Amino acid sequence: MSNATNRVLLIDDDEDDYLLTQTVFDDIPGGAYEVVWCQNFESGLEKLEQINFDVCLVDYRIGANSGVDLIKVANANGLQTPMILLTGLIEREIEFAATEVGAVDYLEKHALTPVLLDRAIRFAQAQAEARRSLAQQTNLLQATLDHTGTGIAALDSGDRLIACNTRFENIMIDAGAAAGEANCSDGNPAGESNVEETLRAMLDRRGDSVEDPLELSLSEDRTVQLRINGMPEGGRVVVAIDVTEHKKVERAYEILRETQERLVQSEKLAALGELVAGIAHEINTPVGVTLTGATQLQMETARVRQLYDTEELSAEDLEDFMDVTIETTDLMTVNCCRAAELIQSFKQMAVDQTGGERRTFDLAGYIDDLLVSLQPLLRTPQSQILVDFQPDILVDGYPGVLSQLLTNLITNSLTHAYDDADRGTINIAARLLDTDEVEIRFADDGKGIPPENVDRIFDPFFTTRRSSGGSGLGLSIAYNLASQALQGTLTCNSELGRGTAFVLRFPRKHPLSADEGRPRRTAGGQA
User: Fold this and answer.
1) Which of 37, 293, 401, 451 is the most exposed place for a label (fewest CB within 10 A)?
2) What global pTM score does this model have?
């Protein structure tokens, strides 16, 4: 026991009992107790409110009042003094009653000894300290929970509300009001202030499943999710999260994605239009030559027919006719084959890019067909695209994706690497790596990219040709196709004045099935 004096309040209407209790205190070794005596209910409560006592001993009978009632009133008034009930009666009901109202101990007067009294006071003080510490921790936890942006509630095994923070209470009030407005025609929603009742209604809607959150629409522009978790010892914890801003971001992202897809389609249609114009121009030459040859052959045939009909056809005329026929048909055949080759290449590119089907194809042959269709895009007749392919690379994947990616790279180089009159050379090399990955190296000998722009060329809508009609989509589309549709990588290395090089790597066999791997097009930026 500490040498400090402990102040004790004794509330007892019997003076003899007070003197006997004082004698017991006097016999406690150390004399560390100072006893203050009150004879009635009212004065005892007044003393408790005026002075901070270390402990209070209260008799079960205080005139017409009960010590149990005094303890109950003291605790209801927020008094922190530990209370011990004294009684001359040996009844278990009294002990239970005292414990229920907050007494920390129960002592029988006839069995009171210095040792027992000293021990009881020690125990009461320890209990009071433990209660204060628990109350402080509880208050701290409650304050912490009340200041969090997440609503939290604890339920027992019968789904009765044990505790909740202010945030949860406010959400349930709003949910009750929203439900009432939806169900009550008089405009006065029922159950608006009953948090537990509103929560139980929400849980009844949810059922026993806890896998998915329950979503509540509190208003047109406010959404809350209830996430329910069971506890091992029984009961449940309910977490209420306001996901309004998250929903807004999701919607904004969806709008952006739809806008990007529309931009991608516009970019593809613009590229397709340019390609069609180039193909039309390229096909015009062989078709024109074929038409000229057919016209010439028609005229020669008519001339020979007339000579034959008038019996003026000589052997020399017939020989001239056969020479012209052979020369003209040879010229027509060559040009028809050229036109057919261009049409077939263009047709295969169009099928792949619009269909997006997975198939196995020879890489070298496919890119050759692609380059045939892109030949009209070259700036000058002196410009060229050189290829160096490892033979027999069979790719199991999406040729249309690869076609669009390489078309974007070529178009980007032709647009940004060279001026209109410049002669340019683009080198494309492909090889199969030991990791069963395909590596395609794409390099031009153009102007290169300034160092401050190299890290931004794959950013959406970044372009240095905005004033000239650049959309800022080409390279970002290429990057997204490489990383998402082809499950690979696309990197860039450039030095100002010395050209730009891209390295594309992707699995030779696409890792996803045809249904899973159908590419999703995402818009991006062209340098």
Assistant:
1) 451
2) 0.41
